[in-house]
Each structure stands twice: as structure tokens, then as C-alpha cells.
Design brief:
Helix content is 50%, strand content 13%. The protein is an alpha/beta fold. The protein has one domain (32-261): Rossmann fold (3-Layer(aba) Sandwich), CATH 3.40.50. The strands form two sheets. It has a five-stranded parallel β-sheet, sandwiched between helices. Strands 2-3 form a two-stranded antiparallel sheet. Helix 2 crosses helix 3 and helix 3 (47-68) packs parallel to helix 6. The longest helix is centred in the first third of the chain and has 29 residues, at 2-30.
Length: 266
């Protein structure tokens, strides 16, 4: 009788453990954006993030002034900037994704249409300095064309210069920004390119592996801090897609596993 009782108790315990494990996996996948919490908090609350933006735009101003001093340049000058997480702050959308358990592109257009993204620290002041120096500012973004008016109005409301259709280049059929950069380069000397994603500088980073992105970053080391100015973004980007091998069809459980598999521990 005792053996039968022990057998029943053991079976019940194992079943309970199995149930708990399954429930944990369900919770992990159900609350799929929990992993973003610290990244978004760092972006929104850490004074260090604000300091990095000020530091970056201060350095960009120094580089731009050095370029202005080069009298051998005869073309009109331009500074090319990305928009999201370079000059406008979309972290409230990322917070919404966490708290409402949604994922991009859910409600992205709704957020952009509100036109409530704040300017990132130092962005307006730097770009006004560029415009006041008789140079042009081009905003090249992967926001869709249907968000043009909302984006333009958002930039204007935040005080950004030259926020007009001539200087605002939206995504059409391709996310390749090289087409727009080449268009600007035909008529302008591009002093600086600024963005939070390496594809904001050159298309050699488009949809590449972690290893390739790192190798090509090494090969372009002399461009960073000179002509390529990288902004901080721990919340999302091509770097994250590289972790997932650029596979957009992975389940949340698979993504979670791949994130952990890429961690380096001692």
C-alpha cells in the first residue's frame, strides 16, 4: 500500500513539475516583450543616455566646423540624418509594445500619426547650426510614404530646420537608403551621416550576419567619429535581427532561445 501511495505521489509530483515547466514556457512567450524593459528604461530614464546624445551632437558640431574650414570644398554642404532614434525619440512606442504586449508594426503608424515624438537631446540645436551655416539637412527615413505629413509636422513642431518635402525622404518600395544618399551626393558634399543603424551609412550592412557586421565595422573603423556618427539605440535595430539570423518567421520561444544562445559568459 505504501509503495502504491509513493508511486501515486511521485507521478503527481512529476506531472506538477511538467505542468509548471510548460506554464513557464507559455508565460515567456506570452509576455514576449519583457526582455525589452531594461533597454527602454535605459533610454528613457538614464541620464547617461541624455549625456551620450549631447556628447554625440557636440562632436558632430566640431566635425562640421572643421569641414566648413576646408575651403577646397566647392559643392554646397549637406548633413544627412536618420529620423527615428537619431533625432526623434520613439521610446514611448517601445514602452507601449512592452505594456500592451504588441510588436512592431502593430500600432506603429498610429504612434507616428500622433506626431508626439520628442526631439532627442542636442538634435535641434545642432541641425539649426547646420542650416544657419548655409548647409542643407536631409532627413532620410524608413518610415512609409503615407506617414510623410505626420512626420513632417512632428519635425516642424519640435523646431527642426528644413523640415519640408524637399529635404524629407521617405521609404517607397525599398528600405535601401543608398538610393537616397546617392541622390543627395550628386548635388552636395555630404559632411556627415548620422544614424542609429549601420545601414544609415552604407548598404554593406544590410541584412548581414553578426560576424559580417562586425567584420565590416572593423574595415570601416576610420569612418566612425569622422564622417559616420552613430547614435545609441539598445531597443531595436538590424543588430537584433542579426541575432535572429534575419529570419522574420521565428516564434517568440525561438527568439528567446537565440537571444540566450548569443550571450557570452565566463
Amino acid at each position: 500500500m505504501k509503495k502504491l501511495f509513493l508511486l501515486i505521489a511521485t507521478t503527481a509530483l512529476l506531472a506538477s513539475c511538467t505542468h509548471t515547466t510548460v506554464e513557464k514556457e507559455k508565460t515567456c512567450c506570452k509576455n514576449s516583450n519583457e526582455f525589452m524593459t531594461m533597454a527602454v528604461l535605459y533610454h528613457q530614464k538614464a541620464a547617461e543616455t541624455k549625456a551620450i546624445y549631447y556628447q554625440t551632437f557636440n562632436w558632430a558640431k566640431t566635425l562640421f566646423e572643421n569641414d566648413l574650414a576646408d575651403k577646397s570644398i566647392k559643392q554646397k554642404r549637406a548633413v544627412v540624418v536618420d529620423i527615428d532614434e537619431t533625432v526623434l525619440d520613439n521610446s514611448p512606442y517601445e514602452a507601449k509594445c512592452i505594456l500592451s504586449n504588441i510588436s512592431y508594426p502593430d500600432q506603429w503608424n498610429e504612434w507616428c500619426s500622433l506626431g508626439k515624438a520628442d526631439a532627442l537631446p542636442g538634435a535641434v540645436e545642432f541641425l539649426k547650426f547646420v542650416a544657419d551655416s548655409k548647409a542643407d539637412v536631409f532627413y532620410i527615413t524608413n518610415r512609409s510614404e503615407k506617414l510623410r505629413e505626420a512626420t513632417r509636422n512632428n519635425l516642424k513642431a519640435q523646431g527642426f530646420p528644413q523640415a519640408d518635402d524637399q529635404h524629407l525622404m521617405m521609404k517607397t518600395d525599398s528600405t535601401n537608403k543608398e538610393l537616397y544618399r546617392n541622390f543627395v551626393a550628386k548635388s552636395y558634399h555630404i559632411c556627415l551621416l548620422m544614424g542609429d543603424n549601420l545601414s544609415d551609412f552604407t548598404n554593406v550592412f544590410d541584412k548581414r550576419s553578426i560576424e559580417t557586421r562586425n567584420h565590416r565595422t572593423d574595415s570601416l573603423r576610420n569612418e566612425f567619429g569622422r564622417r559616420f556618427i552613430v547614435m545609441p539605440n539598445t531597443m531595436y535595430g538590424d543588430w537584433e535581427m542579426a541575432v535572429y539570423l534575419n529570419n522574420t518567421k521565428l516564434s517568440e520561444h525561438e527568439k528567446d532561445s537565440m537571444r540566450k544562445a548569443n550571450l557570452v559568459q565566463y
